[in-house]
Design goal:
This protein is mainly alpha-helical. 61% of the residues lie in helices and 0% in strands. The chain contains 16 helices and no strands. Helix 5 runs parallel beside helix 7. The two termini are 13 Å apart.
């Protein structure tokens, strides 16, 4: 599969089918009083769909990415109209107010935070629309929360689920490159301090409900924060010399795609493909290693692509990771 107009339209149709679908819904909402018992649409007028807040956010990233890259598609006009109706000042002020509640201190931390920043980065590229400017106050609020969180986070969280630190910081770092150089520096320093001394990975991934690789997301974050000539020896010491990449990094199987947690494993295949394609750029000049990385990326991607649509437990989010992977494919 290539990232062409046909693929982009397919992904857009999937996301358009659920960003405005309120139920079923997993709100992750902490109530402080009786008045906080409200519907998803009341709590999150911009991001109430797609089963949960973070999936709605990154599905909007997918939609704006399709509009930005394939502007002549009929779906692009539908995306534009829906975005105009969604990213209003009123809706986004309500989203911002939600984050400012004391009970929301940990809401969507850090996964949803990283995706919101990545969405704002994409929205800012659509200069003919006010979406970027209207999302910016929420993005700035989340960036400040991320900065405070990093100051308190003594140890990285290295699970393969939403609490994974490295994945969120990679997304946030791309936003910070454009909007907050100081935060970019803090992310790079934190990554070097937490992961720069790591080697000889011995983790037991995959976990049964993971959609991220703990070691490959960490490697991707270190790659973004490390000079190229220093990164490759570190990467080799992490997963190449010990045989992990060749022995352990194979596509995973999914036993039940109607189970929301087990369905995460399709996402692991896609996110591993994304990581490996991103990491392959650092392996150029080492043909044997580059070929291994590219081969593993392709086999992971191929294992998941036929399952991007189907059961709603995967359909409400997998296309975003498929697009992320395809954008990184050499």
């Amino acid at each position: 599969m290539e990232l062409n107009a046909e693929t982009a339209a397919k992904f857009a149709r999937i996301a358009l089918g659920h960003v405005g679908r309120e139920y079923p819904n997993s709100p992750g909402h902490v109530l402080g009083c009786d008045a906080d018992a409200r519907t998803p649409r009341e709590l999150h007028p911009a991001f109430f769909g797609s089963f949960d807040w973070h999936s709605c956010v990154h599905s909007w990233w997918l939609l704006l990415s399709v509009r930005g890259g394939f502007a002549t598609l009929p779906e692009a006009r539908e995306i534009e109209a829906l975005a105009d109706a969604t990213f209003t000042v009123e809706n986004l002020e309500t989203e911002l107010a939600y984050f400012q509640r004391p009970e929301a201190r940990g809401f969507e931390r850090p996964y949803g935070w990283g995706w919101l920043l990545y969405l704002h980065l994409e929205a800012s590229r659509h200069g003919d629309k006010p979406w970027g400017a209207q999302l910016e106050p929420l993005a700035r609020e989340i960036a400040q929360r991320l900065r405070a969180y990093l100051a308190l986070l003594t140890y990285p969280i290295t699970v393969g689920t939403h609490f994974n630190t490295a994945f969120a910081l990679w997304l946030a770092g791309k936003w910070a490159d454009a909007f907050d150089p100081a935060l970019r520096g803090e992310i790079s320093e934190w990554a070097a301090r937490q992961f720069g001394g790591k080697s000889d990975y011995r983790g037991w991934e995959p976990g049964g409900d993971e959609f991220l690789s703990p070691v490959l997301t960490a490697a991707l974050l270190v790659q973004s924060a490390t000079p190229a000539d220093e990164f490759l020896p570190w990467f080799e010491g992490l997963v190449v010399e010990n045989g992990w990449l060749e022995r352990e990094c194979h596509p995973v199987s999914v036993s039940d795609r109607s189970d929301g947690k087990i369905a995460h494993l399709d996402g692991l295949n896609l996110s591993r493909a994304w990581c490996l394609w991103e990491l392959s750029a650092s392996c150029r000049g080492r043909p044997e290693l580059e070929n291994l990385v590219l081969e593993r990326a392709q086999t992971h991607f191929s294992a998941a692509m036929s399952h991007v649509a189907g059961d709603y437990m995967g359909e409400h989010w997998l296309a975003s990771f498929a697009l992320l992977a395809l954008q990184s494919r050499p």
